[in-house]
Amino acid sequence: MIVMSADATDQQVQHVEERLAHFGLGAVTLHGQERIAIAAIGTNALEHLEQMLTLPGVAEVVPISRPFKLASREVRPTDTIVKIGNVEVGAGRPLVMMAGPCSVETLEQTVTTAKAVAALGANILRGGAYKPSTSPYNFRGLGEPGLEILDEARKASGLPVITEVLTPTDVPIVVAVADCLQVGARNMQNFALLDAVGEQRERPVVLKRGLSATIEEFLLAAEYILARGNPNVILCERGIRTFEKYTRNTFDVSAIPLLKRLTHLPVIGDPSHGTGKWYLVHPVALAAVAAGADGLIIEVHPNPDLALKDGAQSLTFDNFRTLMVALPAIAQAVRGMPMIN
Ligand code: PEP
Ligand code: MN
Fold this sequence. Notes:
The protein starts with a strand and ends in a 6-residue tail after the last helix. The chain contains eleven helices and 14 strands. It has two domains: 2-61, 2-Layer Sandwich (Alpha-Beta Plaits), CATH 3.30.70; 82-335, Aldolase class I (TIM Barrel), CATH 3.20.20.70. It has helices at 10-22, 49-53, 107-119, 144-157, 171-177, 191-199, 215-227, 255-262, 271-275, 278-290, 317-335; strands at residues 2-4, 26-31, 36-41, 58-61, 82-84, 87-89, 96-100, 124-126, 161-164, 180-183, 205-208, 233-237, 267-269, 295-299. It is of the alpha/beta class. The relative contact order is 0.12. The protein has an eight-stranded parallel β-barrel, surrounded by seven helices. Helices cover 35% and strands 17% of the residues. The chain binds phosphoenolpyruvate and manganese (II) ion (MN). The site of phosphoenolpyruvate has 10 residues, from loops.
């Protein structure tokens, strides 16, 4: 990490970037509040550390010890705020609620849900048009017509939309409609997809923790996106696979404060996939917020019994209302506490 002096000029910054390119190193320039820092990326970065110190405008060169660099608090100590449409996520901003069906099924189902969750205080509409499916025989989403439905639902509800992108080739078409891209748990280590969502800068990305991913693997997956130049990444704890069978996944509540200690990126919780049971969503949602989550993503369906996917973990409108009533007290109580880095 090359930290420039407070009065460094644009030319001096450019000079450093050119010198890094000369050494075959990548450069990601980070504009902080007071100074500019340039992350030198490459396995041989440490070799050239001393040489970079001699360049005009360079204040100091700091080696970063974590395997993930751009995601680490060492590189950026202050919380990153990620904007989805006009909604800000992170850095103590009000709790962001993303809600909607697991899958876009019909225009009516999606628009009805969008309006209902908007009326109950949700900030962002979720819904999958492209669905990852463990079995090839299960519902795999409506595809492009599903994106059109999401567009209608955004207009009808006024909510920005988050939806999953499954392949690098689908990125442009999803970017054209979605306000935020979702990389699902099963794709957390799809490195071609991480590169593709990192190369586009238009849309932020919610990256979900892989089914059996360690925290380090999770942060290294985020690093792929950041290293490609997209700084707007939100991490989502959605449960991991353990020996326990009563729940679909084991929601790792400790991941939330741990991630917030290690990274400046916003962290949200997904108690729907994290538990797989609608009656566990409410208490685990409260726990995630108590643990410091910047937001939640919750599955809501007009009639969970009829849902084509994830009905057992979807909240009815009434249950979502009950959750929205319970959350503010927890959010307020925790946000009064300082976050320990
Ligand atoms: C989803 O959000 O509907 C989904 C498939 O989530 P995950 O990737 O966490 O399983
Ligand atoms: Mn789902």
